[in-house]
Write a structure and sequence with these properties.
single chain; mainly alpha; MetI-like fold; about 0% strand
Length: about 290
């Protein structure tokens, strides 16, 4: 009985927080537009196999044909359907963006939490390492690593994730430094709570809003980096991606505008949508911006 009441009360609290978040989020109408864009592209990525009229690698159609009823986005120089490849490219771009952002967030949260909570020499050492990664030219280092270790999608995800964690780390550290002296943390310490319990159960949930906002922006950044690497020929050739489509379209820019326009427009839309979502989440989660 007590367990059932506890579960119900927990669900009520979570539902109340979610409802409160949505009420604040929807006040930003531009953020709603971003959510619709990201939701549409996510839907396309998940159901690309059902929405696409052809196979993404199928060749043999008429080459370099402009948009028509048979090929909504036209065809390229190998006779491949651009519409189909654009749909499947959404899957690759979102997968890279989400997994790279997840990787960088996990690393950044771990390092930032330890640095902010422990302080002292541990904080100094971890911050020097963070600054070392932060001053590295991210794109050119990713370019070199992708070149030497091969254009595998998993290598690209790892490279982007391992180079993007410092911003998350600094955010988490700042939140931990301000929260670890709060009354609720001191109360947990006074009753003998373990450090791991204080970090994960007390401080981290309260430090999560800026991390969530930053993660949404890192997804957009990772998509741009992957597209740029693919544009330079360092993307995984076994996957259809918008960057790879732009790489293939370079020699056709003057004769077939549609080959580069649609994947380029897709990159623009998803990055715009993610940035708008990030702004909306910041408005909804930032306590300094909440209306009383």
């Amino acid at each position: 009985m007590q367990a059932a009441e506890f579960d119900r009360s927990t669900l009520d609290v979570l539902w109340g927080k979610a409802k409160d978040f949505w009420i604040r989020y929807r006040r930003n109408r531009v953020a709603i537009l971003g959510l619709l864009i990201v939701g549409l592209i996510s839907f396309v990525a998940i159901f690309a196999a059902f929405l696409a009229p052809y196979e993404p690698w199928r060749i043999g159609f008429e080459t370099i044909r402009p948009p028509s009823k048979a090929h909504l986005f036209g065809t390229d120089d190998l006779g491949r359907d651009i519409y189909t490849r654009t749909l499947f490219g959404a899957r690759m771009s979102l997968m890279v963006g989400i997994l790279a952002a997840l990787t960088s967030s996990v690393i950044g949260i771990a390092v930032g939490a330890i640095a902010g909570f422990m302080g002292g020499k541990i904080d100094d050492v971890l911050m020097r390492i963070t600054e070392l990664f932060q001053v590295m030219p991210k794109f050119f280092l990713a370019l070199m690593i992708a070149f030497f270790f091969g254009p595998s999608v998993w290598n690209i995800i790892f490279v982007i994730g391992i180079l993007s964690w410092p911003s998350t780390c600094r955010l988490v550290r700042a939140e931990f430094l301000s929260l670890k002296e709060q009354e609720f943390v001191l109360a947990a310490r006074s009753i003998g709570a373990r450090k791991s319990s204080i970090i994960f159960n007390e401080i981290l949930p309260n430090a999560s809003p800026p991390v969530i906002v930053n993660a949404s922006l890192q997804v957009a950044s990772a998509i741009l980096i992957e597209a740029t690497l693919s544009f330079f020929g360092l993307g995984d050739p076994s996957w259809v991606s918008w960057g790879r489509m732009l790489y293939d379209a370079q020699r056709l820019l003057r004769v077939a505008w549609w080959v580069s326009f649609f994947p380029g427009a897709s990159i623009f839309l998803v990055v715009l949508g993610l940035n708008l979502v990030g702004d909306g989440m910041n408005d909804a989660l930032n306590p300094r911006l909440r209306e009383t």
